[in-house]
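FAQ
Q: What does a multi-component entry look like?
A: The components come first, one per line:
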Amino acid sequence: MRKSIYSGRIVNLGLESITLPSGVDVELEIIRHPGAAAVVPLHADGTVTLVRQYRHAGGGMHIEIPAGVLEPEEPPAVCAARELSEEVQLAAETLTLLSAIHTTPGFTDERIHLFLGTGLTPTDGTPDADEYLQPIRMPLTKAVAMVRAGQITDGKTIAGLLLAYLDSTTERDGAPGGRSSRSAAQTAKRTPGE
Amino acid sequence: MRKSIYSGRIVNLGLESITLPSGVDVELEIIRHPGAAAVVPLHADGTVTLVRQYRHAGGGMHIEIPAGVLEPEEPPAVCAARELSEEVQLAAETLTLLSAIHTTPGFTDERIHLFLGTGLTPTDGTPDADEYLQPIRMPLTKAVAMVRAGQITDGKTIAGLLLAYLDSTTERDGAPGGRSSRSAAQTAKRTPGE
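Then the predicted structure of the entire assembly, as tokens:
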């Protein structure tokens, strides 16, 4: 049972009464969210294009992967391509799903589909007026070092960068860490286009 | 300027009017959250203890690292130790900060301090009655493979496991991927205790 408290542009807050698998009844504050998509744009030279973005809720400037909220009925890959063009003016020949993460499942159903974007070419997209962001390009290995140093703190960006990095160094279905002979640049060079 | 809409147990929702660095005025739906702490409990044999947990907002059962919301004024490491004992009945000799992630900075200030817990010993903690969770222990490499296969989707858990895994295989301040000779088990064996 859900008692609606607020319906906004992005956020829908309600109180939901449920019975846990253990039989205990609880009332939870739940944010229903339309979901989102994000892309790790990996260039053939082993660099990634990120965005430096002002996040009021996040307390200032953040370095993030390009991302946006799903429009009604919009497939996540379409949303990812749209945001990639709007935010960093790139199109990807190939979008490969890395994961679909739950950002914080204790209080929201928000799910972000994370894609690896390769075969990148320029577009003439423009950002939304209510966003403030600047593209920033750096080696994937540097971005991973910034994650590990605590300089990149956005959850979806950490997940996307580390998953892309592991995919660039080891086979996904093999034992992770079992192979590490290929560098990010070497892997990306196999991508056609760009 | 903030107009409060709802103040609940975990979630505080308000509308905040701000001016972006670009000069554009916007009104944002913002959830103010007390913050949280989480631990990757890494045993000396290279396994981790996770929790299988029911998440109503997340649509069912999730495999997560032990975590909880900060009490007022509670230091994150104290919260992490408390949740480690309550959720998986473990105490850590050493808690090392991996990162403090923003779960979803577009609409909340929630920040989760992620720790690596080593030197693990049993405790007699018990879970809160309003949670439903079961400890589950597996090799860190298996947990990382589940992340990469899309079977573990919780954002903080993905960040914590992948950061712990990278720390177990490469030096944090060196070029990531530059060294990969040490396995997770070998690193953990250096930890005293347990």
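Q: Is there any commentary attached?
A: Sometimes. For this entry: Strands of chain B lie at 2-7, 12-19, 25-32, 36-41, 47-55, 60-64, 67-69, 90-102, 111-122, 133-139.
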